[in-house]
Write a structure and sequence with these properties.
338 residues; 3-stranded antiparallel β-sheet; 10 helices; 51% helix
Amino acid sequence: MMIRLLAVLALLMTLIPPQVQAHALEPGYLEIQALQGEVHSLFWRKPDVKGRPMDMDVLLPETCDPRSPPTPRFDGAAWVSRWTAHCDGGLVGRQITIEGLNRTNTDVLVRFQGTSGPGFTKRLTPDQPSFTLPEDPTAWQVLADYIALGTDHILSGFDHLLFVFALLLLIHDWRRLVGAITAFTLAHSITLAAASLGWLRVPAPPVEAVIALSIVFLAVELSKRRDGTLRLSERWPWLVSFSFGLLHGLGFAGALRDIGLPEGDLLMALLGFNLGVEIGQLAFVATVLVFAALVTRAAPTMGTQLRQSDGLLNTVLAYSIGSIAAFWAFERVAGFIL
């Protein structure tokens, strides 16, 4: 009965306007490469906001010339700048600031690579828009920062969450549910790794469109569910989850490519991002289950209503979820066709 009551939270999710982006995370990315002497090569990428660059910029220490990047150019997805700066005494032990980050709701990933030794990765947030470059960075810092990025991505990716949520609505047996979530995790881990390492290349726009269609499929399954009969997603939940999980993994890989992967710590960053996705996914499922338990205790009659798989509430939920996913699908298809 608890799983059926998850529909209450699903109803709240369906109130999200279709215009909301499926992926809210669009972080900035700053890469600093130490060259010979005190010269540094810098690459700065900041998100696009309605055709203009996000109002934030790099501010290097006063010992650097220049301290800020040149006018950025649009590369089709974000605003990028490349330049060379001379910093007296180098950058180690000096403070780097993302000016204006405190006025946004995004993050910035900073990647520093010296002339020797391991690189350094730091995640900056609106609450922490600056940092001091340490002398001895570790791979564990890379892992921690990419775990945070992976968690942020899954928790702000409404399409991925809606897919997982639809599974919770469809699958009432806890064993089948565990199998479905495990299959989904395994599948998206495979394609995330393969695409991030360059072994698999698939254009991002069609992938995002099919991800939306995967939610439409589950919404159809939910709308046609009847007492005493099992739909395909209920009979073979692990197969459905694994198949669509492969697609969702490609979507995660696209986000990871946008963020950027450090060449020196590529595997550690990939592991961290994947762990972050799993942490966020499990946190979402746990939150839903706790919420369902509270609703069960407060409104026991809701379970009786939701047990009617062909009832009005089930139909409203199915069509609401399907409508939002269909809107995303049409929007994404139009984006690469028109």
